[in-house]
Design goal:
two-stranded antiparallel sheet, mainly alpha, about 5% strand, 4 strands, about 425 residues
């Protein structure tokens, strides 16, 4: 309704116009005063020495003096407010509707002792004073004491609202730090041209956080379940050999992790060489960003649920803010552990399928493999000097071996049964005839 509101503001400065608005309406809006609203620069009567007959001008010594009007002649924009607000800033904004750019104007506030501000912060004391003074219901009260009481009530509620905003900011600072950590990682992944260092750092964090499942890094190396830890890594990187890595070769946990990371770095380089630099970059971005976004959404939902119910811990004499900070930090560390672990597993397990192979389908891929085998067999036959008929698929695999002369199908079977060969051993022949 911008056009309609602009029309209302345009008509608000005309003579005799009454505009009803909320306490926030018109902020930053200059109401232009129309003709007749400003009657004179100063509300006064100009007198000279020849007007002694006028009662108002008696006693004027000089030729040009001004005598204030005897009647109430307000001019300019008049602001009538129906309540005082919790923040004095809003009251000052309402007063600022009048007297803009040197134009005359006035402001008057009308309050009730039943207003929320007075009822919560000043009603009892003021009501008692008014009762002792004999004030009746509905009677107008104008006194500096009332103004000071209202100001004190506004200061009280401003202090309360300030503490609430400060408390809210303390809660938001926890998520703000986590948000900066997550978004900085995403931004680095998006702008980086090589994700090798980022991927290896994520992998190292995942391995360090996973190792306590198989042993305490602070304990001697002989108490570690190194074989179980290596098997877990091999399930994610099956094409790399980790069998020769043992804890006996290391004097500390850092030495052991350096040996493992050296193999993982070699596995990354093998994968990059196999699929190419561009594909390894796109794969790393896809895996990292999708994993972070999914787990970050779940973390935000979990933290929102925590914030809704953490105030109940005040019944146990615990500070809800401290408990919220502790629980949110613990959940964030758990989320980052899951993110690093999932990125490590998904990146090294993912296999790239080329577009032509995906479009061909499994049958055509198998046919291509058979065709390549046929070409290899034909090349081998030509090398041995055997002719290959065009259009026929050469035989692959083991060929039958013949020993002795060839037996005709209608000749007697050499086994001595008296039957023809085709009805005896020839019918059971598997390609090898003795």
């Amino acid at each position: 309704y911008h056009a309609k509101e602009a029309e209302i503001i345009r008509e608000a400065g005309k003579q005799g116009a009454v505009t009803i608005a909320t306490n926030m309406a018109g902020r930053g809006t200059d109401i232009k005063l129309g003709p007749g609203v400003v009657k004179c620069p100063r509300c006064c009567i100009e007198c000279d020495l020849d007007c002694d007959s006028t009662p108002e001008c008696k006693g004027v010594k000089t030729r040009k003096e001004y005598v204030h009007c005897l009647q109430d002649c307000p001019c300019g924009l008049q602001i009538v407010a129906t309540e005082r607000h919790e923040a004095r800033r809003i009251d000052r904004q309402l007063r600022g509707r009048s007297g803009r750019q040197g134009d005359p104007g006035a402001t008057r506030f009308f309050l009730s002792l039943e207003d929320d501000l007075m009822r919560l912060f000043g009603s009892d004391r003021i009501s008692g004073i008014m009762t002792r003074l004999g004030m009746k219901e509905g009677e107008e009260i104008q006194h500096p004491m009332i103004t000071r009481a209202i100001t004190r009530a506004q200061k009280k509620i401003e202090d309360i609202n300030f503490e609430r905003r400060k408390r809210t900011l303390d809660y938001d600072n926890v998520m703000n730090k986590q948000r900066e950590a997550v978004y900085s990682l995403r931004r680095e992944v998006l702008v980086s041209k090589d994700l090798k260092d980022i991927m290896l750092d994520i992998t190292y964090d995942a391995l360090v956080n996973e190792f306590p499942t198989y042993g305490d890094p602070e304990r001697p190396t002989g108490e570690w379940n190194v074989r179980g830890f290596i098997d877990w890594i091999k399930r994610n990187i099956p094409y790399q050999d980790f069998s020769d890595i043992t804890a006996e070769d290391s004097t500390a946990f850092d030495d052991f992790m350096n040996a493992v990371m050296k193999r993982i770095k070699h596995a990354y380089e093998m994968k990059a060489e196999l699929i190419g630099e561009e594909l390894i970059l796109n794969l790393g971005r896809l895996v990292i960003l999708r994993t972070i976004d999914t787990d970050w959404q779940d973390h935000l939902l979990s933290v929102d649920e925590l914030r809704e119910g953490v105030h109940l811990r005040a019944y146990a004499q615990l500070d809800p803010l401290v408990e919220y900070q502790r629980e949110a930090t613990r959940q964030f560390h758990e989320m980052m552990y899951n993110v690093n672990k999932e990125i490590f597993e998904r990146f090294f397990r993912t296999q790239i399928v080329m577009e032509e192979e995906r479009a061909a389908g499994p049958r055509e891929i198998q046919f291509r493999k058979d065709a390549s085998q046929m070409e290899a067999a034909a090349a081998a036959a030509q090398a041995e000097g055997e002719p290959v008929k065009p259009g026929r698929r050469p035989r692959s695999g083991q060929q039958p071996v013949r020993v002795g002369p060839k037996i005709g199908r209608n000749e007697p079977c050499p086994c001595g049964s008296g039957k023809k060969y085709k009805k005896c051993c020839g019918a059971k022949a598997t390609g090898v005839v003795k």
